Amino acid sequence: MEEFNIDIKNNNDITILYLEGFLDAHTSGELEKSFEKLIEDKKYKIVVNFEKLSYISSAGLGVFMAYIETMRNNNGDVKLSNMSDKIYNIFDMLGFPILFEIYKEENTALEKFNQ
Amino acid sequence: MTNANKIVISSSTKNLSKVRNFVENKANELGFDSNEINQIILSVDEACTNIIKYTHNFNENENIEVITELKNKEFRIIMKYKGRDFDPNKMQEPNMNEYFNNFKVGGLGIPMMKKFMNKVEYIHVNPDMNSLTLIKSIQNTR
Predict the structure, then answer these.
(1) Residue B74 is assigned to a structural domain of this protein
(2) ipTM (interface pTM)
(3) CA-to-CA distance for B88 and B43, rounded, in angstroms?
(4) What is the DSSP string of B3-59?
(5) Mutate to test the interface with B, among A58, A63, A69, A85 (most CBs of B within 10 A)
């Protein structure tokens, strides 16, 4: 079975989620749990780094849709960064850049929170 | 195409990676580029996920048969499974602006399948057999 891992780091009041592997209907529950924990801990400023993510299906996309409103309602956001072209194409073809800020570099996403 | 052109999985999301690997190998042999391969395996993943979740209600005693074939310059991935009649072609396409404005969740699997594949064919045979075929054309330039 293909693996999925999440590594979490904090940068002041911003939490960075590093996704790795394959995010599908089987593994998306793990990402949901991470977001639930962030909300429980009142952490609403989130950057998701996709650099090591190899694959995403609609189950993965659904997790971001499920939590972005809560984060924004609490003066936070879910900003996305470091996507491969293959992953970005999926987000782009469905129109996700309408709702989500997507940056090439994690640093740019972090800076946007501090502006 | 070489090797077996069929796998059978039990209806569980833990088997999605098996299906993706199987279809990826076949698509590779046909010379699709990496972007097309991703679109194909994603479409098959979405189709199988819907069958597992909505047709089989995560019942691992059910099976999905996944067959690949090359016919008339088309790569065809056929999923055969038992269950109720549901034709994805009859599902209304979501308005994506409305989708994002209302922070909707879910319902993107079928639109993705239709966007990424050239054709989606569905046949229901009474009482409970279904055949869902995803078709990707092979470009003449290849």
Answers:
(1) yes
(2) 0.92
(3) 12
(4) S-SEEEEES-GGGHHHHHHHHHHHHHHTT--HHHHHHHHHHHHHHHHHIIIIISTT-
(5) A58
pLDDT tens, chain A, 115 aa long: 679 999 999 999 999 999 999 999 999 999 999 999 999 999 999 999 999 999 999 999 999 999 999 999 999 999 999 999 999 999 999 999 999 999 999 999 999 998 8
* Chain centre distance of CA B105: 20
CATH number reported for the structural domain that contains residue B110 in this entry: 3.30.565.10
Q: Which two three-digit tokens encode residue B57?
A: 């209600």
Cα nearest neighbour of A1 on chain B: B17
Q: CB count, 10 Å around CB of A18?
A: 18
Mutate to test the interface with A, among B34, B49, B55, B110 (most CBs of A within 10 A): B49
Convert A83-107 to b/e letters by CB count within 10 Å (16 or more is b). Answer: beebbbebbeebebeebbebbeebe
Q: CB B97: neighbour CB atoms within 10 A?
A: 11
Domains in chain B, number: 1
A37 touches chain B (CB under 8 A): no
CATH number attached to the domain at A4-113 = 3.30.750.24
Give the structural domain span for B79: 6-137
Nearest CA in chain B to A59: B106
Is B102 exposed, middle or buried, given 0-12, 13-18 or 19+ CB atoms closer than 10 A?
A: exposed
CB A111 within 8 A of CB A81: no
